[in-house]
Amino acid sequence: MEIRVYNTLTNKKEKLIPINPGKIGMYVCGVTVYDDCHIGHARGAIIFDMIRQYLEYRGFQVTYIHNFTDVDDKIINRAKKENCRACDVAEKYTAEYCRDMKNLEVKEATREPKATEHIGEIIDLIKMLQEKGFAYEVGGDVFFEINKFPEYGKLSNRDVDQMRAGARIDIDERKHDPLDFVLWKSAKEGEPFWESPWGPGRPGWHIECSAMSMKYLGHTFDIHGGGKDLIFPHHENEIAQSEAASGKPFARYWLHNGFVNINQEKMSKSLQNFFTIKEVLAQCSSEQLRLFLLSTHYRSPINFSLSAVEEAGKALERVYNTFYTVENIISVAKDGDQGESPKSMEQPARIVSTAEDMKFKKRINLLKADFEKAMDDDFNSAEAIGKLYDAVKEVNVFIHEHPQIKAVEITFLKNMMEKIKRLGSVLGIFQKFSNTSKETNSMEDFMEILLEVRNLCRSNKYWDVADLIRSRLQEKGITIEDRKEGTFWRKK
Ligand SMILES: [Zn+2]
Protein backbone atom coordinates (compact mmCIF):
# COMPACT_ATOMS: atom_id res chain seq x y z
CA MET A 1 0.00 0.00 0.00
CA GLU A 2 1.31 3.42 -0.87
CA ILE A 3 0.08 6.93 -0.22
CA ARG A 4 -0.52 9.01 -3.32
CA VAL A 5 -0.90 12.77 -3.21
CA TYR A 6 -1.97 15.29 -5.80
CA ASN A 7 1.03 17.55 -6.33
CA THR A 8 0.22 21.04 -7.65
CA LEU A 9 3.82 21.29 -8.86
CA THR A 10 3.43 18.40 -11.32
CA ASN A 11 -0.36 18.52 -11.73
CA LYS A 12 -0.72 14.83 -11.01
CA LYS A 13 -1.06 12.28 -8.27
CA GLU A 14 2.28 10.94 -7.17
CA LYS A 15 3.53 8.33 -4.75
CA LEU A 16 4.54 10.02 -1.49
CA ILE A 17 8.21 9.17 -0.98
CA PRO A 18 9.67 10.87 2.09
CA ILE A 19 13.19 12.27 1.96
CA ASN A 20 14.03 10.48 5.19
CA PRO A 21 12.30 7.09 5.45
CA GLY A 22 9.61 7.09 8.11
CA LYS A 23 9.66 10.86 8.52
CA ILE A 24 7.69 13.71 6.97
CA GLY A 25 8.54 17.39 7.16
CA MET A 26 5.48 19.52 6.50
CA TYR A 27 5.03 23.29 6.34
CA VAL A 28 1.62 24.95 6.10
CA CYS A 29 1.19 28.69 5.66
CA GLY A 30 -0.58 30.20 8.62
CA VAL A 31 -2.73 33.24 9.16
CA THR A 32 -2.04 36.94 9.20
CA VAL A 33 -3.15 37.84 12.69
CA TYR A 34 -5.22 41.02 12.25
CA ASP A 35 -8.81 39.81 12.71
CA ASP A 36 -10.96 36.89 13.88
CA CYS A 37 -10.57 33.81 11.72
CA HIS A 38 -13.42 32.62 9.53
CA ILE A 39 -14.72 29.32 8.30
CA GLY A 40 -12.22 29.30 5.40
CA HIS A 41 -9.37 29.30 7.93
CA ALA A 42 -11.11 26.52 9.85
CA ARG A 43 -11.26 24.42 6.70
CA GLY A 44 -7.55 24.80 5.97
CA ALA A 45 -6.58 24.05 9.56
CA ILE A 46 -8.80 20.98 9.80
CA ILE A 47 -7.68 19.61 6.43
CA PHE A 48 -3.97 19.81 7.19
CA ASP A 49 -4.62 18.47 10.69
CA MET A 50 -6.38 15.50 9.07
CA ILE A 51 -3.49 14.96 6.64
CA ARG A 52 -0.95 15.15 9.43
CA GLN A 53 -2.93 12.79 11.67
CA TYR A 54 -3.39 10.27 8.88
CA LEU A 55 0.35 10.30 8.15
CA GLU A 56 0.98 9.71 11.85
CA TYR A 57 -1.58 6.91 11.84
CA ARG A 58 0.39 5.36 8.97
CA GLY A 59 3.46 5.41 11.17
CA PHE A 60 5.29 8.52 9.95
CA GLN A 61 7.00 10.81 12.38
CA VAL A 62 5.64 14.16 11.22
CA THR A 63 7.31 17.49 11.89
CA TYR A 64 4.50 19.96 11.33
CA ILE A 65 5.33 23.66 11.06
CA HIS A 66 2.62 26.27 10.91
CA ASN A 67 3.55 29.96 11.02
CA PHE A 68 2.02 33.21 12.16
CA THR A 69 2.41 36.30 9.97
CA ASP A 70 2.59 38.85 12.74
CA VAL A 71 3.91 41.87 10.83
CA ASP A 72 2.00 43.01 7.76
CA ASP A 73 0.15 45.98 6.23
CA LYS A 74 -3.21 44.64 7.42
CA ILE A 75 -1.98 44.46 11.01
CA ILE A 76 -0.44 47.93 10.82
CA ASN A 77 -3.65 49.40 9.35
CA ARG A 78 -5.79 47.83 12.05
CA ALA A 79 -3.46 49.18 14.75
CA LYS A 80 -3.75 52.67 13.26
CA LYS A 81 -7.54 52.42 13.28
CA GLU A 82 -7.60 51.23 16.88
CA ASN A 83 -4.91 53.60 17.95
CA CYS A 84 -2.68 50.91 19.40
CA ARG A 85 0.61 49.20 18.53
CA ALA A 86 0.82 46.70 15.66
CA CYS A 87 2.31 44.11 18.04
CA ASP A 88 -0.76 44.42 20.30
CA VAL A 89 -3.07 43.64 17.39
CA ALA A 90 -0.87 40.67 16.40
CA GLU A 91 -0.72 39.36 19.94
CA LYS A 92 -4.46 39.62 20.44
CA TYR A 93 -5.37 37.78 17.24
CA THR A 94 -2.66 35.15 17.69
CA ALA A 95 -4.27 34.31 21.03
CA GLU A 96 -7.72 34.31 19.38
CA TYR A 97 -6.47 31.97 16.68
CA CYS A 98 -5.02 29.58 19.26
CA ARG A 99 -8.31 29.62 21.14
CA ASP A 100 -10.24 28.88 17.93
CA MET A 101 -7.92 25.98 17.11
CA LYS A 102 -8.31 24.57 20.59
CA ASN A 103 -12.08 24.77 20.22
CA LEU A 104 -11.83 23.06 16.83
CA GLU A 105 -9.65 20.38 18.46
CA VAL A 106 -6.86 20.88 15.96
CA LYS A 107 -3.65 19.28 17.19
CA GLU A 108 -0.94 21.77 18.03
CA ALA A 109 1.83 22.03 15.43
CA THR A 110 5.33 20.82 16.24
CA ARG A 111 6.35 24.47 16.06
CA GLU A 112 4.40 27.66 15.42
CA PRO A 113 7.06 30.21 14.46
CA LYS A 114 6.31 33.90 14.17
CA ALA A 115 7.78 36.14 11.47
CA THR A 116 8.92 38.77 13.98
CA GLU A 117 10.94 36.17 15.86
CA HIS A 118 12.90 35.28 12.72
CA ILE A 119 14.04 38.67 11.45
CA GLY A 120 17.71 37.56 11.67
CA GLU A 121 17.10 34.51 9.45
CA ILE A 122 15.04 36.62 7.03
CA ILE A 123 17.80 39.24 6.69
CA ASP A 124 20.43 36.51 6.14
CA LEU A 125 18.31 34.98 3.39
CA ILE A 126 17.79 38.32 1.63
CA LYS A 127 21.52 39.06 1.91
CA MET A 128 22.29 35.74 0.27
CA LEU A 129 19.85 36.46 -2.57
CA GLN A 130 21.48 39.82 -3.10
CA GLU A 131 24.99 38.33 -3.09
CA LYS A 132 23.94 35.68 -5.63
CA GLY A 133 22.45 38.36 -7.88
CA PHE A 134 18.76 37.49 -7.47
CA ALA A 135 17.81 40.61 -5.53
CA TYR A 136 18.39 44.36 -5.85
CA GLU A 137 17.95 47.30 -3.55
CA VAL A 138 16.22 50.56 -4.41
CA GLY A 139 16.03 53.24 -1.73
CA GLY A 140 15.86 50.88 1.24
CA ASP A 141 13.49 48.40 -0.44
CA VAL A 142 14.82 45.07 -1.70
CA PHE A 143 13.16 43.25 -4.60
CA PHE A 144 13.49 39.74 -6.00
CA GLU A 145 14.25 39.81 -9.70
CA ILE A 146 12.07 37.12 -11.26
CA ASN A 147 13.87 37.21 -14.62
CA LYS A 148 16.98 35.83 -12.89
CA PHE A 149 15.03 32.72 -11.94
CA PRO A 150 14.07 30.98 -15.21
CA GLU A 151 11.76 28.51 -13.51
CA TYR A 152 9.50 31.26 -12.19
CA GLY A 153 5.89 30.19 -12.82
CA LYS A 154 6.45 26.45 -12.52
CA LEU A 155 3.99 26.00 -9.65
CA SER A 156 1.10 28.02 -11.01
CA ASN A 157 1.93 26.60 -14.42
CA ARG A 158 1.79 29.93 -16.18
CA ASP A 159 4.34 31.75 -18.19
CA VAL A 160 5.55 35.13 -17.12
CA ASP A 161 3.48 37.03 -19.72
CA GLN A 162 0.28 35.33 -18.54
CA MET A 163 1.15 36.15 -14.97
CA ARG A 164 1.78 39.79 -15.80
CA ALA A 165 -1.62 39.94 -17.48
CA GLY A 166 -3.45 38.00 -14.76
CA ALA A 167 -2.04 39.55 -11.64
CA ARG A 168 -3.03 42.86 -10.21
CA ILE A 169 0.36 44.45 -9.94
CA ASP A 170 1.31 47.75 -8.37
CA ILE A 171 3.07 49.85 -10.91
CA ASP A 172 6.37 50.67 -9.32
CA GLU A 173 8.84 52.33 -11.67
CA ARG A 174 11.74 51.24 -9.52
CA LYS A 175 11.13 47.56 -10.30
CA HIS A 176 13.04 45.88 -13.17
CA ASP A 177 9.94 43.83 -13.97
CA PRO A 178 6.36 44.43 -12.76
CA LEU A 179 6.35 40.88 -11.33
CA ASP A 180 9.42 41.48 -9.16
CA PHE A 181 8.29 41.23 -5.57
CA VAL A 182 9.42 42.87 -2.38
CA LEU A 183 11.68 41.05 0.07
CA TRP A 184 12.35 43.95 2.44
CA LYS A 185 10.31 47.13 2.86
CA SER A 186 11.85 50.32 4.18
CA ALA A 187 10.08 51.69 7.25
CA LYS A 188 7.47 54.40 6.85
CA GLU A 189 6.61 56.86 9.58
CA GLY A 190 4.99 55.16 12.57
CA GLU A 191 5.51 51.60 11.33
CA PRO A 192 7.30 48.83 13.22
CA PHE A 193 10.84 48.31 11.94
CA TRP A 194 14.07 46.39 12.43
CA GLU A 195 17.62 47.48 11.58
CA SER A 196 19.03 45.86 8.44
CA PRO A 197 21.88 46.29 5.91
CA TRP A 198 19.36 48.30 3.83
CA GLY A 199 18.31 50.56 6.68
CA PRO A 200 15.35 50.29 9.05
CA GLY A 201 12.46 48.28 7.65
CA ARG A 202 10.47 45.05 7.81
CA PRO A 203 10.19 41.86 5.76
CA GLY A 204 7.81 41.48 2.83
CA TRP A 205 5.26 38.72 3.28
CA HIS A 206 6.68 35.88 1.14
CA ILE A 207 10.21 35.75 2.51
CA GLU A 208 9.19 34.75 6.05
CA CYS A 209 7.84 31.37 4.91
CA SER A 210 11.08 30.53 3.08
CA ALA A 211 13.18 31.54 6.07
CA MET A 212 11.12 29.66 8.63
CA SER A 213 10.43 26.50 6.62
CA MET A 214 14.11 26.08 5.69
CA LYS A 215 15.19 26.80 9.27
CA TYR A 216 13.01 24.07 10.75
CA LEU A 217 12.79 21.55 7.91
CA GLY A 218 15.97 22.02 5.83
CA HIS A 219 16.44 23.34 2.28
CA THR A 220 14.42 20.49 0.80
CA PHE A 221 11.45 19.06 2.64
CA ASP A 222 8.47 16.86 1.91
CA ILE A 223 5.13 18.69 1.97
CA HIS A 224 4.17 22.34 1.64
CA GLY A 225 0.51 23.16 2.08
CA GLY A 226 -1.94 26.03 2.00
CA GLY A 227 -5.14 27.27 0.41
CA LYS A 228 -5.48 27.39 -3.38
CA ASP A 229 -5.46 31.18 -3.22
CA LEU A 230 -1.81 31.02 -2.12
CA ILE A 231 -0.50 29.24 -5.24
CA PHE A 232 0.14 32.55 -6.95
CA PRO A 233 1.93 34.67 -6.07
CA HIS A 234 2.79 33.54 -2.51
CA HIS A 235 3.94 29.97 -3.13
CA GLU A 236 5.41 30.77 -6.51
CA ASN A 237 7.54 33.42 -4.80
CA GLU A 238 8.47 31.11 -1.95
CA ILE A 239 9.85 28.61 -4.47
CA ALA A 240 11.78 31.27 -6.39
CA GLN A 241 13.48 32.84 -3.40
CA SER A 242 14.19 29.51 -1.62
CA GLU A 243 15.62 27.69 -4.62
CA ALA A 244 17.57 30.73 -5.80
CA ALA A 245 19.19 31.02 -2.36
CA SER A 246 19.90 27.36 -1.61
CA GLY A 247 20.45 26.08 -5.17
CA LYS A 248 18.40 23.05 -4.13
CA PRO A 249 14.81 21.99 -4.73
CA PHE A 250 12.42 23.43 -2.13
CA ALA A 251 9.28 21.44 -1.12
CA ARG A 252 8.67 18.21 -3.05
CA TYR A 253 4.89 17.98 -2.78
CA TRP A 254 2.58 21.01 -2.91
CA LEU A 255 -0.89 20.41 -1.49
CA HIS A 256 -3.65 22.99 -1.82
CA ASN A 257 -7.13 22.97 -0.35
CA GLY A 258 -10.25 24.34 -2.07
CA PHE A 259 -12.32 27.38 -1.15
CA VAL A 260 -15.36 27.69 1.07
CA ASN A 261 -18.46 29.16 -0.57
CA ILE A 262 -21.39 30.43 1.44
CA ASN A 263 -24.79 29.53 0.06
CA GLN A 264 -23.19 29.01 -3.38
CA GLU A 265 -21.45 32.39 -3.35
CA LYS A 266 -17.82 33.14 -2.73
CA MET A 267 -17.36 34.12 0.88
CA SER A 268 -16.28 37.70 1.30
CA LYS A 269 -16.53 40.52 3.76
CA SER A 270 -18.08 42.84 1.19
CA LEU A 271 -20.91 40.39 0.47
CA GLN A 272 -21.47 40.11 4.21
CA ASN A 273 -21.79 36.35 3.89
CA PHE A 274 -19.07 35.87 6.37
CA PHE A 275 -18.90 33.43 9.28
CA THR A 276 -16.20 33.57 11.91
CA ILE A 277 -15.16 30.34 13.62
CA LYS A 278 -16.67 31.65 16.86
CA GLU A 279 -20.02 32.35 15.20
CA VAL A 280 -20.14 28.86 13.72
CA LEU A 281 -19.13 27.15 16.95
CA ALA A 282 -21.93 28.99 18.73
CA GLN A 283 -24.33 27.08 16.46
CA CYS A 284 -22.75 23.63 16.32
CA SER A 285 -20.14 21.39 17.91
CA SER A 286 -16.60 21.24 16.56
CA GLU A 287 -17.13 17.57 15.76
CA GLN A 288 -20.17 18.42 13.67
CA LEU A 289 -18.20 21.06 11.79
CA ARG A 290 -15.28 18.71 11.24
CA LEU A 291 -17.55 15.95 9.94
CA PHE A 292 -19.17 18.43 7.58
CA LEU A 293 -15.85 19.83 6.31
CA LEU A 294 -14.18 16.44 5.86
CA SER A 295 -17.18 15.01 4.01
CA THR A 296 -15.95 16.81 0.90
CA HIS A 297 -12.58 16.09 -0.72
CA TYR A 298 -10.04 18.65 0.44
CA ARG A 299 -9.24 19.92 -3.06
CA SER A 300 -12.87 20.55 -4.01
CA PRO A 301 -14.75 23.71 -3.12
CA ILE A 302 -17.26 23.28 -0.32
CA ASN A 303 -20.56 25.03 0.12
CA PHE A 304 -21.11 26.08 3.69
CA SER A 305 -24.53 26.60 5.18
CA LEU A 306 -25.78 26.17 8.70
CA SER A 307 -28.37 23.67 7.49
CA ALA A 308 -25.63 21.50 5.98
CA VAL A 309 -23.81 21.52 9.31
CA GLU A 310 -27.07 20.55 11.02
CA GLU A 311 -27.29 17.57 8.68
CA ALA A 312 -23.82 16.51 9.82
CA GLY A 313 -25.13 16.69 13.39
CA LYS A 314 -27.96 14.31 12.51
CA ALA A 315 -25.48 11.91 10.90
CA LEU A 316 -23.38 11.97 14.08
CA GLU A 317 -26.47 11.24 16.14
CA ARG A 318 -27.25 8.19 14.03
CA VAL A 319 -23.73 6.87 14.55
CA TYR A 320 -23.92 7.45 18.31
CA ASN A 321 -27.34 5.78 18.49
CA THR A 322 -25.75 2.70 16.97
CA PHE A 323 -22.85 2.86 19.44
CA TYR A 324 -25.38 3.17 22.24
CA THR A 325 -27.31 0.12 21.06
CA VAL A 326 -24.10 -1.93 20.82
CA GLU A 327 -22.99 -0.82 24.31
CA ASN A 328 -26.41 -1.85 25.60
CA ILE A 329 -26.20 -5.29 24.01
CA ILE A 330 -22.75 -5.77 25.54
CA SER A 331 -23.85 -4.72 29.03
CA VAL A 332 -27.04 -6.82 28.93
CA ALA A 333 -24.96 -9.81 27.84
CA LYS A 334 -22.50 -9.19 30.70
CA ASP A 335 -25.32 -9.03 33.25
CA GLY A 336 -26.72 -12.25 31.79
CA ASP A 337 -23.34 -13.97 32.08
CA GLN A 338 -23.11 -13.20 35.77
CA GLY A 339 -26.47 -14.79 36.46
CA GLU A 340 -25.96 -18.00 34.54
CA SER A 341 -23.47 -20.74 34.94
CA PRO A 342 -20.98 -20.36 32.12
CA LYS A 343 -20.99 -23.96 30.95
CA SER A 344 -24.50 -23.91 29.44
CA MET A 345 -23.87 -21.14 26.91
CA GLU A 346 -20.17 -20.66 26.43
CA GLN A 347 -19.17 -24.11 25.32
CA PRO A 348 -21.36 -24.63 22.25
CA ALA A 349 -20.80 -21.02 21.19
CA ARG A 350 -17.04 -21.57 21.17
CA ILE A 351 -17.29 -24.61 18.94
CA VAL A 352 -19.32 -22.92 16.22
CA SER A 353 -17.37 -19.72 16.54
CA THR A 354 -14.14 -20.53 14.73
CA ALA A 355 -15.48 -20.26 11.18
CA GLU A 356 -17.73 -17.37 12.12
CA ASP A 357 -14.97 -15.70 14.03
CA MET A 358 -12.79 -15.79 10.94
CA LYS A 359 -15.56 -14.30 8.86
CA PHE A 360 -16.05 -11.47 11.34
CA LYS A 361 -12.34 -10.75 11.63
CA LYS A 362 -12.15 -10.59 7.86
CA ARG A 363 -14.99 -8.08 7.76
CA ILE A 364 -13.27 -5.82 10.27
CA ASN A 365 -9.98 -6.06 8.39
CA LEU A 366 -11.83 -5.13 5.22
CA LEU A 367 -13.20 -1.99 6.86
CA LYS A 368 -9.67 -0.97 7.84
CA ALA A 369 -8.39 -1.75 4.33
CA ASP A 370 -11.23 0.21 2.68
CA PHE A 371 -10.64 3.19 4.93
CA GLU A 372 -6.91 3.20 4.25
CA LYS A 373 -7.43 2.75 0.52
CA ALA A 374 -9.59 5.88 0.44
CA MET A 375 -7.18 7.89 2.58
CA ASP A 376 -4.11 6.65 0.70
CA ASP A 377 -5.68 8.05 -2.45
CA ASP A 378 -4.85 11.72 -1.85
CA PHE A 379 -6.50 11.79 1.59
CA ASN A 380 -10.01 11.14 0.32
CA SER A 381 -11.71 11.69 3.66
CA ALA A 382 -15.12 11.92 1.98
CA GLU A 383 -14.86 8.34 0.76
CA ALA A 384 -13.29 7.17 4.03
CA ILE A 385 -16.24 8.61 5.97
CA GLY A 386 -18.57 6.86 3.52
CA LYS A 387 -16.91 3.53 4.40
CA LEU A 388 -17.44 4.21 8.10
CA TYR A 389 -21.11 5.03 7.50
CA ASP A 390 -21.48 1.77 5.56
CA ALA A 391 -20.04 -0.11 8.52
CA VAL A 392 -22.45 1.61 10.92
CA LYS A 393 -25.37 0.68 8.65
CA GLU A 394 -24.14 -2.89 8.54
CA VAL A 395 -24.02 -3.04 12.35
CA ASN A 396 -27.63 -1.81 12.50
CA VAL A 397 -28.78 -4.43 10.00
CA PHE A 398 -26.86 -7.11 11.87
CA ILE A 399 -28.52 -6.20 15.17
CA HIS A 400 -31.90 -6.17 13.50
CA GLU A 401 -31.37 -9.60 11.95
CA HIS A 402 -30.05 -11.17 15.18
CA PRO A 403 -32.63 -10.75 17.93
CA GLN A 404 -31.06 -13.76 19.70
CA ILE A 405 -27.43 -12.78 19.80
CA LYS A 406 -24.54 -15.19 20.50
CA ALA A 407 -21.31 -14.40 22.32
CA VAL A 408 -19.25 -14.50 19.13
CA GLU A 409 -21.65 -12.06 17.49
CA ILE A 410 -21.47 -9.69 20.42
CA THR A 411 -17.69 -9.77 20.13
CA PHE A 412 -18.03 -8.92 16.44
CA LEU A 413 -20.29 -5.93 17.17
CA LYS A 414 -17.94 -4.72 19.87
CA ASN A 415 -14.85 -5.02 17.66
CA MET A 416 -16.62 -3.42 14.73
CA MET A 417 -17.63 -0.45 16.89
CA GLU A 418 -14.10 -0.13 18.30
CA LYS A 419 -12.69 -0.14 14.76
CA ILE A 420 -15.14 2.52 13.58
CA LYS A 421 -14.14 4.67 16.55
CA ARG A 422 -10.43 4.10 16.01
CA LEU A 423 -10.58 4.97 12.31
CA GLY A 424 -12.87 7.90 13.09
CA SER A 425 -10.27 9.21 15.55
CA VAL A 426 -7.84 9.71 12.67
CA LEU A 427 -10.34 12.20 11.23
CA GLY A 428 -11.32 13.57 14.65
CA ILE A 429 -14.90 12.27 14.40
CA PHE A 430 -17.02 9.75 16.34
CA GLN A 431 -15.05 10.45 19.52
CA LYS A 432 -17.52 12.21 21.76
CA PHE A 433 -19.55 9.18 22.67
CA SER A 434 -16.78 7.34 24.50
CA ASN A 435 -15.05 10.48 25.70
CA THR A 436 -18.08 11.77 27.59
CA SER A 437 -18.59 8.54 29.48
CA LYS A 438 -14.87 8.17 30.18
CA GLU A 439 -14.63 11.71 31.46
CA THR A 440 -17.60 11.20 33.74
CA ASN A 441 -16.04 8.00 35.10
CA SER A 442 -12.71 9.58 35.88
CA MET A 443 -14.44 12.58 37.48
CA GLU A 444 -16.41 10.22 39.70
CA ASP A 445 -13.28 8.32 40.71
CA PHE A 446 -11.50 11.55 41.48
CA MET A 447 -14.35 12.94 43.60
CA GLU A 448 -14.59 9.72 45.55
CA ILE A 449 -10.92 10.01 46.56
CA LEU A 450 -11.22 13.71 47.35
CA LEU A 451 -14.27 13.24 49.59
CA GLU A 452 -12.54 10.38 51.38
CA VAL A 453 -9.61 12.70 52.14
CA ARG A 454 -12.00 15.42 53.29
CA ASN A 455 -13.84 13.05 55.61
CA LEU A 456 -10.55 11.96 57.10
CA CYS A 457 -9.68 15.62 57.71
CA ARG A 458 -13.02 16.13 59.44
CA SER A 459 -12.69 13.13 61.71
CA ASN A 460 -9.19 14.34 62.68
CA LYS A 461 -10.57 17.86 63.22
CA TYR A 462 -8.53 19.45 60.40
CA TRP A 463 -11.48 21.74 59.80
CA ASP A 464 -9.55 24.34 57.79
CA VAL A 465 -8.41 21.76 55.19
CA ALA A 466 -11.89 20.25 54.97
CA ASP A 467 -13.41 23.71 54.51
CA LEU A 468 -10.81 24.66 51.91
CA ILE A 469 -11.70 21.58 49.85
CA ARG A 470 -15.37 22.48 50.05
CA SER A 471 -14.95 26.15 49.14
CA ARG A 472 -12.50 25.48 46.29
CA LEU A 473 -14.91 22.92 44.83
CA GLN A 474 -17.75 25.38 45.22
CA GLU A 475 -15.77 27.88 43.13
CA LYS A 476 -15.59 25.26 40.39
CA GLY A 477 -19.33 24.71 40.52
CA ILE A 478 -19.28 21.51 42.58
CA THR A 479 -21.49 21.47 45.67
CA ILE A 480 -20.89 19.13 48.59
CA GLU A 481 -23.62 18.05 51.00
CA ASP A 482 -22.91 16.24 54.24
CA ARG A 483 -25.86 14.04 55.16
CA LYS A 484 -26.48 11.21 57.59
CA GLU A 485 -26.05 8.70 54.78
CA GLY A 486 -22.69 10.15 53.78
CA THR A 487 -21.25 13.00 51.71
CA PHE A 488 -22.79 13.75 48.31
CA TRP A 489 -21.62 15.99 45.50
CA ARG A 490 -23.21 17.45 42.45
CA LYS A 491 -22.03 19.59 39.57
CA LYS A 492 -23.96 22.67 38.50
ZN1 LIG B 1 3.57 31.05 3.35
Distance between the termini: 51 Å
Strand residues, percent: 5-15%
Helix share, percent: 40-55%
- Give the CATH topology of the largest domain: Rossmann fold
Using only C-alpha atoms, the radius of gyration works out to 28 Å
Major sheet: size, sense and barrel closure? 4 strands, parallel
The top level CATH class name of the largest domain:
Alpha Beta
Structure description:
The strands form 5 sheets. The protein has a 4-stranded parallel β-sheet, with helices on both faces. A 4-stranded antiparallel β-sheet has the order 5-6-7-8. The protein has helices at 39-57, 73-82, 86-103, 119-131, 160-166, 205-217, 231-246, 277-283, 286-294, 306-339, 342-376, 381-401, 407-427, 432-459, 463-475; strands at 4-7, 12-15, 23-28, 61-66, 135-138, 141-144, 181-186, 201-203, 221-227, 251-257, 260-262, 265-266, 302-304, 478-483, 486-491. The chain has 3 domains: 4-257, Rossmann fold (3-Layer(aba) Sandwich); 313-430, Anticodon-binding domain of a subclass of class I aminoacyl-tRNA synthetases (Four Helix Bundle (Hemerythrin (Met), subunit A), Up-down Bundle); 434-491. Strand 11 (260-262) and strand 12 (265-266) form a beta hairpin. By secondary structure, it is an alpha/beta fold. Bound molecules: zinc ion (ZN). Residues 29, 209, 234, 238 line the site of zinc ion.
Could you list some keywords that capture this structure?
single chain; 492 residues; alpha/beta; Rossmann fold; Four Helix Bundle (Hemerythrin (Met), subunit A); 4-stranded parallel beta sheet; 4-stranded antiparallel beta sheet; 15 helices; globular; binds zinc ion
